[in-house]
Every structure is written in structure tokens, then in C-alpha cells.
Design brief:
globular; 146 residues; single chain
Length: 146
């Protein structure tokens, strides 16, 4: 199974996700669509990813363009160039997704619950021990007041 994530780099909040049996462009677009639908900022956005075929696809790139999101991709296969994504993947695998599910539906529920805990309850040292959602809300309120 594959988990597609879209994370806000400032707040570390997972703002879009999708679990699927394949890593097709149509599947990763579902995570991107969720992120776009839940978007709280009105400033320009940059979408950083690796160079996977699904992210390079015409479909994915057209969704980015339609929503005025500028693509940014790693220039090679160095995991450090996508460190935020690798860190969040590691946290989810090591702290939350610790048992093997029997069905895609069971995995989808576990992923949803894990992302909710990650966003709402898990404090981050890099966020001064705040949760991603708290930082995300504070940043969007600051933008509205500015």
C-alpha cells in the first residue's frame, strides 16, 4: 500500500493524504486536492517533492498550475533534499503505523487516526513544543490580521 502526504512546511501539519494500492498520479492528486481544499493561507505556495513519475505527470502538474502552486523538485535522489517528508514518513512509521493491517480499509482508518494524533496532539521540538495544528492555526490567524 502507498501513503501520499502533503505537508505544510512551516507548521509541519499534514494537510492532505490518501492511502491507495498503487502510486498513480490520480492517487497522489487526491492528497493534493485535500490539501488545496483545506488551504488556510492566501499567499503563494510552493509544492516540493521528489522526482517520482506521479509528481512529474501532466495531471499532477496541471493541478498545481490550476491552483497557482509553483512546483519545486529535488535535483537527484538524495533523501536530504526532501528531509521534511522523510522525517514525517519516519515518525508515522515508527510511532503510529506499528502493526500490519489486513485490509486497505483498516489501514485507511489507522492512517486517519495517526494523522489526527500527529497534527493535534504530538508536540514538536522544532515548533517549540507546539502541535502542528496549533502552529498552522496561529500562522493563518496572523495572515488574516495583517
Amino acid at each position: 500500500h502507498y501513503l501520499s502526504l502533503v505537508t505544510d512546511a512551516f507548521s509541519r501539519k499534514i494537510v492532505g493524504y490518501h492511502v491507495s494500492n498503487e502510486m498513480k498520479a490520480t492517487d497522489v492528486v487526491k492528497a493534493l486536492d485535500m490539501a488545496i481544499q483545506n488551504r488556510r493561507y492566501d499567499h503563494d505556495a510552493i509544492h516540493h517533492s521528489d522526482r517520482g513519475l506521479q509528481y512529474c505527470s501532466t495531471l499532477y502538474q496541471s493541478v498545481l498550475e490550476t491552483n497557482n502552486i509553483r512546483p519545486s523538485m529535488t535535483d537527484g535522489y538524495d533523501c536530504y533534499q526532501n528531509a521534511l517528508a522523510e522525517r514525517i514518513n519516519g515518525i508515522l512509521k515508527q510511532e503510529f503505523l506499528i502493526y500490519q493491517c489486513n485490509t486497505l480499509d483498516e489501514l485507511s482508518v489507522l492512517v486517519s487516526e495517526s494523522i489526527n494524533i500527529y497534527n493535534e496532539l504530538r508536540p514538536h521540538l522544532s515548533l517549540e513544543m507546539n502541535t502542528p495544528n496549533k502552529v498552522h492555526i496561529m500562522k493563518s490567524q496572523q495572515k488574516m490580521l495583517a
